[in-house]
Each structure stands twice: as structure tokens, then as C-alpha cells.
UniProtKB/TrEMBL annotation:
Transmembrane segments: none annotated. This is Trehalose 6-phosphate synthase/phosphatase. In the C-terminal section; belongs to the trehalose phosphatase family. GO terms for biological process: trehalose biosynthetic process. It comes from Flagellimonas zhangzhouensis. GO terms for molecular function: alpha,alpha-trehalose-phosphate synthase (UDP-forming) activity; trehalose-phosphatase activity. GO terms for cellular component: cytosol.
Length: 483
């Protein structure tokens, strides 16, 4: 049996260059954690971009960088600034991201972006061919690399290739607007197994395959030439234990060990014990519905003025893709909305919204999750949304209310949350009121179901289920070849 090769746009390590010395520290993100069971020992290799463009990489340190990455089981694909612009900020984040999240009006169909996307995907495919053997198993991740499976297949017809999409796959009516729709489908169909977070995304993909390529589709199998491609859903979980253990540790901290943020949250509770904290955490992205949420919050306070001074909304937005104009506009819109709502509704004793625009360390996320009475997540579209799962995992006493958009992939598995349509302000105002008054017994009952499910289907189970399905495809393929 060969190696397992994982490919994603970014490597799961952070490179730091200081005084001519390189250090590569493993990232702590959900994907990196989930892949631990797959990416371990000498039998696996992770290929991706290091985060440094060619221009930022001192030539004399090339070898040291390669060595530092190799120690982490990684190999890099070199990209220059112009490639990052066209491939990552361009086609990936100005064409595919908005289109797949149903923001058709934001999607830019630029030939230059497409050409760079193709050539960079070819670079990733070439790196795979160079670093792998025919009997290796390849797992390609996400929307930045949709052409890679077919590019590898052309050179390696018998290699086993899996692909997982972390964002939604849109309905046929949306997807068909993409000028390069056939090429994208053909790229993906180079895989043996294609995974999505939900059954709906899987269905949308199969519908596009049938209607745009005219291929035979039977249940979740696509027939192409002499190959059968399996399409299935694998809802991604979280590192449940990590969040649960961190929350237990947090609860046991003595007062002098508490962080500044936690002390501020504690003071808030002590000075206004009847007030409830409502939390939302997202990357600053238009798909997350942050601006609409702020408008809905204002609507709620105007519809039910008795909640003034009784609730506080904490918005934590992590900076993201700030080179893309839509994200700059959104940042401005959110800054203005927070300023206006706080300006209009604040009292001497109360500011309705606390707004943080930054990436916070893990410990601060835990402070926020464990101190909030309500989590309110309103994406307009979201492949999964792991924040919803993380909030539930940290609720050690099983209290807390999750209000979650039905447009998030996670809503399919989290029926015990209060599910809302983020465009319906009336419904959200009533749901916030319901959450405020929800009896503790009901909170515990809902959360205990959620916790059991999230603990069982954690991120490691997700990675293993995908790999098992991929290995099954490889074994069937081998049996077929030897017949
Ligand atoms: P994202 O769009 O980034 O991921 P999400 O699934 O919510 O969205 O994951 C965000 C992660 O970042 C969480 O693990 C969270 O803890 C962390 N985070 C958020 N805000 C932070 C902050 N201010 N500081 C530090 N950390 C913060 C994409 C898709 C999702 C899909 C995931 C996984 O868009 O739909 O769920 O991939 O497939």
C-alpha cells in the first residue's frame, strides 16, 4: 500500500523567518486537527502553498524552508505574487466563493483569473505527480483546487483520488452561470470519490453533472468512460474533546488566573446579573450575514424595548481577505452600523454592542463561548459552520441557547438548536425573546442531544469515514483491474 497525499491551498504550518532561521509551527485549525489521523508518520505527505510568495522567500533560505517543512511531513508549491492575485484573490475568492454562496452579483467572470487558476492548479498537480507514486492515495481539498483531480488523472490513470469541498455546491441554476462550468465539473470528475458536507450539495452537484455534461448518474454514482465516480456527503465535525477539555479547564481556573477578557465578562455578569450575553463569531465575510444580523438586532430592540439594558451583543469578526474590494466595503458597512446602533440606543449604563475586529487566541474564544448565554449565528450561506458546534461543545453545564441559520450546513445535524431564516427579522426577534426566556431544563435537554451527536461525529471520525470510503473505491478498482 502506498502513501497518503493530502493537498490543500495552504499547508497546515506557519513559517517564520527570524535572523536567517526558519521555524515551521503546526497550525491548530480544524482541518489540520482532523487530518492528524491521516497525516501522521512517514506514510503521508501534505502538499500546499507555504503562505510566503516567491518574492517574500529569500533564495538562500529555500533549502532550509524545504527541510523545515519536510520535518512536519509537508512539501510546498511555490507561488509568486501575481499567481496569488489571480488564483487566490481572483478566481477562488472573487469568482467561485461568491457564486457558490449565491452572491451572483459579486461573482466576477474574468478570463485572466481563470487562466491563472488553471495554471496554478496545474502547478499543484505537477507537484503531486513529482512527489507521489502510482499506488499512493490522494486527497484534494476545497474550491481552490477543483481542476487538480483531472490534471493528476491524465498522468496517473490508476491512482486513487478523493476530493472534498468545504463550501456549498450551489444549485444548477446558479452554477450554470459560470462560463467555465464544464471545465470545473470535468476537473472534479477526475476523482474517484467526491465529498460534500450535506446531501443537498451532493444533489446539486449531481444535477449539474447530469444536465451540463449529459452523463449517466445512478443514485450517487457517476458513470464516465470506464470509471464510476462516487459522490457522497460527509458532514465535518470538530475536535470535540479539545473544546470540551478547554472549557473544563476554564471553569476550574482560580480568579487570579483569569484573563483580562474573562474578568471583563465576569464584571459584566456581576454588575448586571439579569443581563444576557449574545455571542456571534465569524470571519468577516458577506456570506456570514453580519450586517443583516446587526439590523435584525436593532429591529429586535425596537420591537421589544423591554430588552434594552437586558441584552448585550458581542460581535467577534476575524479579518479575512482584506485585499478583495467586497470585504473592504463590508468592513466599512459593519463599522458604520455598529457606530450608528450604539449611538442611537446606548444609555449611560449600557452599550448594546461590543464589537471586536481581530483574530483572538484560542483561550479567548473559550472565554467567550463559556460566558455567553446565547450564540446567534446567521450565515446567509455556509458550507458547514463549525462555530455552532464549538459553542455547544464548550457548554459543560449544558446550559446556553444556540440560534442558528437554516442556511448553514450544520443546521442539518443540529435540529435541537433554534433554527431561523436570517432574512426574517420578525422571526429572529421572536426567537431571541424565546432564547432569553428558555427554561434551563429545556436548554439542558436540547444541548445534551447535540453534545452526544457532536462528540460521536467528531472531526477524526469525519476524516476516517472519508478515507475509508476512498480506500473502498481503491480496492474495488484494483479488483476490477485484476479481473
Ligand atoms: P470558515 O468560513 O472559516 O470555514 P467556520 O466553519 O465557522 O467558517 O470555521 C471558522 C473557524 O475559525 C472556527 O474554528 C473558529 O473557532 C475560528 N475562528 C472564528 N473567529 C475567530 C476569531 N476571531 N479568532 C480566532 N479564531 C476564530 C470554511 C467554510 C465553512 C466550513 C469550514 C470547514 O466556509 O462553512 O464549516 O470551512 O469545512
Amino acid at each position: 500500500m502506498g502513501k497518503t497525499i493530502i493537498i490543500s491551498n495552504r499547508l497546515p504550518v506557519q513559517l517564520q523567518i527570524s535572523n536567517g532561521t526558519i521555524t515551521a509551527t503546526p497550525s491548530v485549525g480544524g482541518l489540520a486537527t482532523g487530518m492528524k489521523s491521516v497525516h501522521s508518520g512517514s506514510e503521508s505527505l501534505w502538499i500546499g502553498w507555504s503562505g510566503l510568495t516567491d518574492e517574500e522567500t529569500p533564495p538562500e533560505l529555500e533549502d532550509d524552508i524545504d527541510k523545515a517543512l519536510a520535518e512536519q511531513g509537508c512539501a510546498k508549491v511555490n507561488l509568486n505574487a501575481q499567481e496569488i492575485d489571480g488564483f487566490y484573490f481572483g478566481f477562488s475568492n472573487r469568482t467561485v466563493w461568491p457564486l457558490f454562496h449565491y452572491f451572483l452579483e459579486y461573482s466576477e467572470f474574468e478570463l485572466d483569473f481563470w487562466e491563472t487558476y488553471k495554471s496554478v492548479n496545474q502547478k499543484f498537480a505537477d507537484a503531486i505527480i513529482e512527489q507521489s507514486d502510482e499506488d499512493d492515495t490522494i486527497w484534494v481539498h476545497d474550491y481552490q483546487l477543483m481542476l487538480v483531480p483531472q490534471m493528476v488523472r491524465e498522468k496517473r490513470p490508476n491512482t486513487t483520488i478523493g476530493f472534498f469541498l468545504h463550501i456549498p455546491f450551489p444549485s444548477y441554476e446558479i452554477f450554470r452561470t459560470l462560463p467555465w462550468r464544464k471545465e470545473v465539473l470535468e476537473g472534479l470528475l477526475g476523482s474517484d470519490l467526491i465529498g460534500f458536507h450535506t446531501y443537498d450539495y451532493e444533489r446539486h452537484f449531481l444535477s449539474s453533472v447530469r444536465r451540463l455534461l449529459g452523463l449517466d448518474v445512478s443514485f450517487n454514482d457517476v458513470y464516465l468512460d470506464n470509471r464510476v465516480i462516487k459522490v457522497d456527503s460527509f458532514p465535518m465535525g470538530i475536535d470535540y474533546k479539545k473544546f470540551k477539555d478547554a472549557a473544563i479547564m476554564h471553569d476550574s481556573k482560580k480568579s487570579k488566573e483569569r484573563s483580562d477578557l474573562q474578568m471583563r465578562l465576569d464584571n459584566h455578569k456581576a454588575s448586571a446579573p439579569d443581563t444576557k450575553l449574545i455571542l456571534s463569531i465569524d470571519r468577516l465575510d458577506y456570506s456570514k450575514g453580519i450586517a443583516k444580523r446587526l439590523n435584525a438586532f436593532e429591529y429586535f430592540l425596537k420591537k421589544y424595548p423591554e430588552f434594552k439594558e437586558k441584552v448585550r451583543l458581542i460581535i467577534l469578526a476575524v479579518p479575512s481577505r482584506s485585499n478583495v474590494p467586497q470585504y473592504q466595503l463590508l468592513k466599512k458597512e459593519i463599522d458604520e452600523l455598529v457606530g450608528r446602533i450604539n449611538g442611537e440606543l446606548s444609555t449611560v449604563n449600557w452599550t448594546p454592542i461590543w464589537y471586536f475586529y481581530r483574530s483572538l487566541p484560542f483561550e479567548s474564544l473559550i472565554d467567550l463561548y463559556t460566558s455567553s448565554d446565547i450564540a446567534w449565528l446567521t450565515p446567509l450561506r455556509d458550507g458547514m459552520n463549525l462555530v455552532a458546534k464549538e459553542y455547544i461543545a464548550t457548554r459543560t453545564d449544558q446550559t446556553g441557547v444556540l440560534i442558528l441559520s437554516e442556511m448553514a450546513g450544520s443546521a442539518y445535524e443540529m435540529n435541537e438548536a433554534l433554527l431561523i431564516n436570517p432574512n426574517n427579522f420578525e422571526e429572529q426577534a421572536d426567537t431571541l425573546k424565546q432564547a432569553f426566556y428558555m427554561p434551563v431544563e429545556e436548554q439542558i435537554s436540547r444541548n445534551s442531544f447535540l453534545q452526544k451527536r457532536l462528540e460521536r461525529y467528531n472531526v477524526e471520525v469525519w476524516a476516517n469515514e472519508f478515507m475509508n470510503a476512498l480506500n473502498e473505491k481503491r480496492d474495488i478498482g484494483k479488483a476490477f483491474i485484476s479481473e
